[in-house]
Amino acid sequence: MGDRPNQKTASRKRQHIVPKFYLDRFSDGSGYVAAYDKIIGRRYERISTRNVAVEGDFYTLEDAGSEDMYFYEEALGLLETASSAAIREVVRHRTVDFGDHDSRLAVRTTLSLFVRFQILRSHRYRDHIDHAANEYIRHQGIDDLINLGPPPWLKDGRRYYDALHSYLSGEERLVADRDTMLSVLFSVGEQLTSRLMTDFRWILVNNRYSSNITTDCPIGCLSKDDREGDLWQLGVDNIANVWFPLDPTYALLLTKARIAQTGYLVGDPKKLERWNDILRRGAHRWVIWKGGSAANQLELGRASLQ
Predict the structure, then answer these.
(1) How far is CA 179 from CA 69, 109, 146, 163, 237, in A?
(2) Do residues 291 and 34 make contact, with C-beta atoms less than 8 angstroms apart?
(3) What is the value of pTM for the model shown?
(4) In terms of Cα–Cα distance, which of 68, 73, 66 is closest to 17?
(5) Where are the domains positioned within the chain?
(6) Which residues contact 151 (CB under 8 A, 6 or more apart)?
(7) DSSP 258-298
């Protein structure tokens, strides 16, 4: 028998901040990973990817109609399906640059979108936008927001319409149609996607002597002067290196550095440890690695994660 309606609804309410297909790439082959929960200070030697980086109604539009309230989850699902195939092929070919020109362009486009949305769908970005929206309302007032429309940076926030809804009530509440919301969602961060595709060298790094970790915010950034930080702290123009682990062995390094290597190189364990540290510090709650891997030997105590 199929799921009952209330079972389907309960399932849709549990939403992964990081896609389950991505977490499964760090699993032991049976859907389990090792993880550390920074909020409660608990380490899990083995936990199902169904229960890591998942929250209730994280993307649900509470004020939308029943047909539209899960549209963010559905839209991101389309991107996740394409990204899963792209990552799988990159690892299989040991390079981003496989196939003809159209294939290479499609892979870079898909993975640029994936990187962009892993940044924008995170708790850290959500907190940033919520704080900025609160400050804007406090200084400008709700009337300006209604009469003049939102400033560009607020349009680029996660769920611009949610931010707007939270300050409106009754008949003044603005309800956007599905097509408009979908357009806003996929226009977020277009500058970042364009820069990743045109300004960076894409290198697949094989960390054969150590092991990648990942987190609930699995994108690491370094500025031109080697400062680490979030995208909105460093600014798109200042980012010089982007780190995106694909599984315990392989990671993508997007860099502006003029280096002699081709699109594939064997990783330096010391550099990998720095990237692992950057990801650990940037995690909102979850630090994740493959159980029994070299990452298991890393110090994952509270002090190193904060």
Answers:
(1) 13, 22, 21, 18, 31
(2) yes
(3) 0.78
(4) 73
(5) 30-53+201-306, 62-198
(6) 136
(7) --S--SEEEPPHHHHHHHHHHHHHH-SSEEEE-TTSGGGGS
CA distances, 273 to each of 39, 85, 221, 294, 299 (Å): 23, 28, 14, 11, 11
Q: What type of residue sits at position 82? A: A
pLDDT in tens, the chain (306 residues): 444 444 455 567 788 889 999 999 999 989 999 999 999 999 999 999 999 999 888 777 665 556 667 777 777 888 899 999 999 999 999 999 899 999 999 999 999 989 988 887 788 777 766 666 666 666 666 566 556 665 655 554 444 444 444 433 333 333 344 444 444 445 556 777 888 888 999 999 998 878 999 999 999 999 999 999 877 678 778 889 999 999 999 999 999 877 655 566 777 888 899 999 999 999 999 999 998 755 554 454 444 444
97 exposed, middle or buried (CB, 10 Å; 0-12, 13-18, 19+)? Answer: middle
- Residue 173 structure tokens: 């509440």
Please state, in angstroms and rounded to a whole number, the distance separating the CA atoms of residues 69 and 15: 13
